[in-house]
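Write out the bound-state structure for 2-acetamido-2-deoxy-beta-D-glucopyranose.
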Amino acid sequence: MPSLLRLVLPALAAVSTAYAASCTVSATTTIQNAGDATGLASCSTFSGSIAIATGTTDDIALDGIKKLSGNLIATNNANMKRLSAANLETLDGEMRLDGLTRLYGVDFPKLKNIDSIKWNALPNLQTIGFTAEVEQAKKLDIQNTGLRSLKGINIEEVKTLFIANNGYINEFSMQLGNVSDSLTLADNNVNVKVELPNLIWATNLTFRFCGSVSVPSLKTLNGSLGLYNNGFESFSAPNLTSVGEALAIVANDKLSNITFPMLTKITDNLQIANNSQLAEIQAFPELKSIGGAFDISGNESKVETPKLESVKGAFNLQSTDNITEACDFYKSLQQKKWLQGKYFCRGKVEDPGTAGHTPKDQSGSSKKSAATSLSAVNGALGLAAMAAVLLL
Ligand SMILES: *[C@@H]1O[C@H](CO)[C@@H](O)[C@H](O)[C@H]1NC(C)=O
Ligand SMILES: *[C@@H]1O[C@H](CO)[C@@H](O)[C@H](O)[C@H]1NC(C)=O
Ligand SMILES: *[C@@H]1O[C@H](CO)[C@@H](O)[C@H](O)[C@H]1NC(C)=O
Ligand SMILES: *[C@@H]1O[C@H](CO)[C@@H](O)[C@H](O)[C@H]1NC(C)=O
Ligand SMILES: *[C@@H]1O[C@H](CO)[C@@H](O)[C@H](O)[C@H]1NC(C)=O
Ligand SMILES: *[C@@H]1O[C@H](CO)[C@@H](O)[C@H](O)[C@H]1NC(C)=O
Ligand SMILES: *[C@@H]1O[C@H](CO)[C@@H](O)[C@H](O)[C@H]1NC(C)=O
Ligand SMILES: *[C@@H]1O[C@H](CO)[C@@H](O)[C@H](O)[C@H]1NC(C)=O
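---
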């Protein structure tokens, strides 16, 4: 760390009015103690970033500032307990709090607009003191905190939202209408109840280790939907009509019922694997086309996609159960040349796997000339993308 600049108010290029000042600094202003913070109180608009020194032990109150055009940063400070700004309404920059192991209070009662929030390693922070509720933020990245909920943040649109490894968050509910890049909820409290009643479109949505997920209004996904390791028994996307990239439903141990009643098109891969309780897949009554691979493996006894008429990538269906009926149906589609990539369909296998995997028969022997790797247009690429989603 470079040596910290000590704040000297006269050095600020200040433009005073009778009531409030606009203060502009080019470098980052570093605050060492409560007195330094009080020294900024006359700046109702502060242009420049504010950093809190690592050794600060005082509570820091940035009162007086209404608008901060810059970042507010506090990192690697084991002693600081509270950070507040009684008058701050707008923060045109990032609020970065990282490695503040004792911090328990973040009180910004008037804050409504913020460019981005990046919080990490705040184990003692249980609540967000944004009393007025932040209603605009482009990016939220909150990891490894002691937060119980995100109450205080209720935004209507977002670019990226990444909430991970917050072991106590058991509720996530927002008025979000759209997500222009991605929303990821991963490895929080396994019982976390996710409710996005107004979400209409998003690019990527990833849910990992969630207790329940509700997206009743979701209509379009410009990117992918990934459901991994979740604890719910059923998942439904009642209004979803198209998926711009892939749909992946993997390793949800209790999942027994999925429904996508309006879904007609998946532009890239459909992958369903390792959902041990998912016996019947009748989730896609309207699905007509898959631009990548059709890749379903597991313990299915029934798989039905009555309207399917085009799969551009590989077709792979492997199950521990008897799927003769499904294989007969898909064989007929293949004969009509509606399934354009490599074709593999087999039931009663011991170790069902994804496209490219050659399963063992339940008798134990491996049959030859089994699945081949994805060949067609988007197939291989799509799976690579899927792996990326898997790895987060
Ligand atoms: C995103 O959602 C918000 C809130 O629902 C809405 O006001 C806005 O028009 C939406 N933007 C787009 C591009 O759909
Ligand atoms: C995603 O799709 C929605 C609805 O089709 C559209 O309004 C929006 O502009 C698209 N967003 C991006 C980032 O492409
Ligand atoms: C969406 O996810 C895909 C697959 O992981 C990735 O390639 C793409 O860049 C993501 N798009 C956005 C806007 O995050
Ligand atoms: C589902 O979509 C229809 C048609 O676009 C719309 O009228 C309805 O309100 C949507 N349902 C929900 C719960 O958003
Ligand atoms: C599956 O879920 C759908 C939608 O949530 C519901 O209507 C249906 O009754 C469920 N089916 C079973 C067998 O539980
Ligand atoms: C399914 O589980 C098997 C065995 O644990 C694993 O090898 C495979 O990679 C999993 N499939 C997916 C798509 O994650
Ligand atoms: C099939 O079900 C059994 C028993 O529930 C489970 O152990 C196994 O992992 C499941 N296999 C797949 C591929 O989901
Ligand atoms: C699988 O089910 C079909 C009927 O759908 C039946 O004719 C066939 O004998 C069954 N195969 C095995 C190995 O149980």
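---
Residues 1-19, 367-392 have pLDDT under 50 and may be disordered.
Residues 156-157, 177-178 surround 2-acetamido-2-deoxy-beta-D-glucopyranose (ligand 1) (CB under 6 Å).
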